[in-house]
Specification:
mainly alpha, AhpD-like
Amino acid sequence: MEQRLDYVPQSPELYRELIKLSSLSKKSPITAEVGDLVQIRASQLNGCAFCLDMHVKEAKLHGERELRVHHIAIWRESDLFSPRERAALEWTEAVTKLGEHGVPDDVYARVRAQFSDKEVVDLTYSIIVINAWNRLAIPFRVKPGSRDAEYGLDKAGLS
């Protein structure tokens, strides 16, 4: 599929603000801990080819093990993730795919059992940010890998 349009020059101010929010979100210790997992899982759920491609490459650059990246889609059946990571992945799914009645209490209880108040909020902002990026890349059909050189992702060796 061909990219529809480049949203950056059309609304540069909004783009800069989303970049700013992304940058702030990445400063959280929780993002460093589970950010790659969250970004990959949300992008899988949303079917965002550009973001999934980008965050898999980032995960490799951050030292994430290849098998764990492959297991993100099947995290419930995998024993490769810690209880904190499993709670983050479940929270990611619940926040990304909000049901008619919001996030179930049992999912909230599990994330609260693993994370502090601030960590839950920071994790939620991280999920909001990746969902925003997914909602830009999908409708405008941003081509996977099209910004690898710009973002330094060509260094991942996954072209």
